[in-house]
User: Fold this.
Amino acid sequence: QVQLVESGGGLVQAGESLRLSCVASRSSFSGNAMAWYRQAPGKQRELVAMISSVSTNYAESVKGRFAISRDNAKNTVYLQMNSLKSEDTAVYYCNIYGTGYWGKGTLVTVSS
Assistant:
C-alpha cells in the first residue's frame, strides 16, 4: 500500500524558513522520483520541485530559495524553504513523480 505523509507546515512571517518532510512507504519510495507540488487558494496545483536519483528541478518562482533533498535510508523527501514570501502560501503535497499517488498535504501560511 502506497502511503505518503507530509509534515512541517505552519504559519511563518515573510523571510523566514520552513522544512517540509514527506515519509513514504518503502515500496513506494525506492527508485522513484519524488516531487513537491503546491496549491494556493483559487489556483491550480503546480510543481514546485522534483528529485530523481540523478537530478533536481525547480519551478522558476522558487529557484534559489527552495531546496529538495531525499534520504533513501529514511524513505523521506524534504523541501527546505527559505526566504518565504506571501505568495508561497499554499497547501504543499508530496507526490511520487508522474503517478497519481499523493499525500494529504500540509498547509504553509506566510504572513507579510
About this structure: The radius of gyration is 13 Å. The mean pLDDT is 95.
